[in-house]
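Hi R.,

Here's the chain you asked about this morning:
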Amino acid sequence: MWAFLPNRANWARWLGLILLLMAAAQIVFEGPRWQIYPAYGLACLFGFIFLFGLPVRSLFALPLGILTLISASLPAVFSIPHLPHPTGPYQVGTLTYEWMDASRPEIYTDDPNDRRALMVQIWYPAKPTPGAIPAAYIPDARALQPLAQLLHLPTFTLNHLTYARGNAIPSASVADAQPKYPVLIFSHGRGGYRQHNTWEIEELVSHGYIVAAIDHTYAASGVLFPDGRLVPMDARMTERGFINSVIPYLAQDASFVLNQLIAINRVDPNGILAGRLDTERVGIFGLSLGGSTSSQACHDDLRFKACVVMDVWMVGDVLRDGVKQPTLFLTRDAASMKQEGWTQADIDETLNTMQAVYEKLPGDGYFVQVPGVFHTDFSDAPLLSPLTRAIGLTGPIDPARAHAITSKYTLEFFDRYLSNKPAPLLDGKIDFPEVIFRKR
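And here is the predicted structure, written out as tokens:
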């Protein structure tokens, strides 16, 4: 506004200098962000106007107003997200490992000598570390470039997520409240990434679980290895028949990771987790493709004692044979799926196959539907940008409500079957009246 006022006060020139210094400081200390480029330009423009008393004609008012609006809107729409603080009594620590399964050929490539390599991040209950800086949500933006391409966006669109931080402290010491903690493995969705349920993982960890999240190489949007190699999702992962065919292979990732967890429980190269994992109490959970992978892992490996499947169809061995472990199915009603834009065929297949496996469980099972939830509401997506709701990527339900329902049912389920704790929700307690709840 001051640029268009006659007889501007001399101190206004100092405002120009302040604007330029603020832009420079942000670039130097935080790093340039594409969302702020229009604001950089605006700061330079107003800075020169103020500093040198340049004349501004009224015909520039509209372009400058538009630039100001863009400068304010982009950082708001693509803001740095803030993950909620977990509610449990434990602080959260995290470590990341690169593991190679020398016994398994890599089926996604033609090289017969190629072996399956994975990135795995572990979150665990930690001792308080006052003043410590939490780990970055995404340590390196290059890992999300393939995801941006899958969303038909420029590769730099998600770079700002590297500035986001969760609640986990890198390499923190394990909490001493328990000698060992039960273990959970998380499997992400098709084209996802290992951190896309960080809100849920950190909540579980804060209540006394160790969680290992797998980046399923070639099924994730992109997996970045320590040597700089970036592996994008295999193009065949858009083909339904191919997806179904590789689910048993992805389930082997979970069993392999469990083997590695058993190994670091003996000797951890980081000197942190050895002896602290209770590998006799192991559960698995996953969203979308990760739900199918989790159920297949339970079918194939009875070391998994409990399974949570979120919003996905069941196929192959699992649909034919079922699973033996207690299982919690988390999904939504057909009306919510239709509102999201799912075809009737996809709605029927998802709900019918999940219910079929639920109904043939030999033991305990739970079928939970949350009206108003869209598929991505089970993930971090609602936290990443207000744009997700505006474009219909997330549902009409309040994101905090969706996450509270998901995390509460998941926590009580694992509490019952891995920690022998009470689970009032699973006994029919009504904390969420909108939920459609069934149990076996």
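One quick note: The chain has two domains: 2-77, 91-439.

Cheers,
M.
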